[in-house]
């Protein structure tokens, strides 16, 4: 099979490699589509420091869609709904991995695998797993906090856009920080648009979900408020009297199945900005690197 890896800082390669073996608790998926994420850019550039420099190669890609090829013995008992040919999607979790979702086949834990419903094609299905779960689990971190006013930064982005919906459903009065030309999208998710932190002057929000990791976002919080970040490896340092936490996404096939159903039914926005073939993966990376993308960049196998 072919797979996308990085071996040296700033470069990626499409290589020929063996199909990975499936373990007893795992599922082998024939990948049809996988998404490029900012985390892939960071890994290619060793943006998480020198911690990856020791690896001979690192596989790229965190979310995928495709069909079940093989099911491990224990996984088959626990997940009888996963049989060869079943359409699935999953988060392929982790930084330190020789192969990722950007490959002809991928091995993932059975508990990470979600069923793709009829009405949702593989490309949009592949665009969802990592960021829709991140958004949902980030909003979970606000549980126990009285729902008041929540500021979501990066409100037109992949995580922030879904967080608007999930927070509104939990009773939050949501402010979405985005550009003026994103007003229609932000308001369609039930949030009020804010185009700059200066627009919060005199308004101290009860919580911030900082999907954009924006300097100064914590300053919008009232004393005692809650700040939720999206980079658990780099927690926010502040002397403010606020609660600071961060979401570290966890693969969850059962929850993802429900979210995919909602997307298929039109309840959650699915935005694919561009689709590329595997031979054009560098073009796909460049689109994301240039920034300003509204929607996901998907690579088909």
TrEMBL record:
Enoyl reductase (ER) domain boundaries: 7-299
GO molecular function, one term: oxidoreductase activity
InterPro entries noted in UniProt: ADH-like_N, ER, GroES-like_sf, Lipid_raft_assoc_Zn_ADH, NAD(P)-bd_dom_sf
Gene3D superfamilies: Medium-chain alcohol dehydrogenases, catalytic domain (3.90.180.10), NAD(P)-binding Rossmann-like Domain (3.40.50.720)
SMART domains, sorted: PKS_ER
One Pfam family in the UniProt entry: ADH_N
PANTHER family, sorted: PROTEIN AST1-RELATED
Name of the molecule in the record: NADPH:quinone reductase-like Zn-dependent oxidoreductase
Organism whose genome encodes this protein: Lapillicoccus jejuensis
């Amino acid at each position: 099979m072919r797979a996308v890896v990085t071996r040296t800082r700033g470069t990626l390669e499409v290589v020929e490699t063996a199909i990975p073996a499936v373990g007893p608790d795992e599922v082998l998926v024939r990948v049809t589509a996988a998404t490029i994420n900012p985390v892939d850019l960071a890994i290619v550039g060793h943006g998480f420091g020198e911690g990856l420099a020791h690896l001979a190669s690192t596989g790229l890609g965190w979310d995928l869609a495709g069909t079940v090829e093989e099911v491990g013995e224990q996984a088959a008992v626990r997940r009888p709904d996963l049989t060869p040919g079943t359409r699935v999607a999953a988060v392929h979790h982790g930084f330190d991995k020789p192969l990722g979702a950007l490959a002809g086949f991928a091995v993932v834990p059975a508990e990470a695998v979600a069923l793709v419903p009829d009405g949702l094609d593989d490309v949009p299905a592949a665009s969802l797993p990592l960021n829709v779960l991140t958004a949902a689990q980030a909003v979970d971190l606000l549980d126990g906090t009285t729902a008041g006013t929540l500021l979501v930064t990066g409100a037109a982005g992949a995580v922030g856009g879904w967080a608007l919906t999930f927070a509104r459903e939990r009773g939050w009065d949501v402010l979405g920080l985005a550009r003026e030309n994103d007003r229609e999208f932000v308001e369609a998710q039930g949030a009020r648009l804010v185009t700059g932190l200066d627009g919060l002057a005199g308004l101290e929000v009860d919580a911030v979900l900082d999907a954009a990791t924006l300097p100064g976002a914590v300053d919008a919080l009232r004393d005692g408020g809650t700040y939720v970040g999206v980079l658990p490896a780099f927690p926010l340092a502040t002397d403010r009297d606020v609660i600071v936490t961060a979401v570290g996404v966890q693969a969850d096939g059962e929850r993802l199945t429900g979210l995919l159903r909602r997307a298929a039914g039109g309840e959650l926005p699915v935005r694919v900005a561009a689709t590329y073939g595997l031979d054009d993966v560098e073009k796909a990376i460049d689109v994301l690197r240039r920034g300003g993308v509204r929607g996901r960049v998907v690579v088909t196998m």
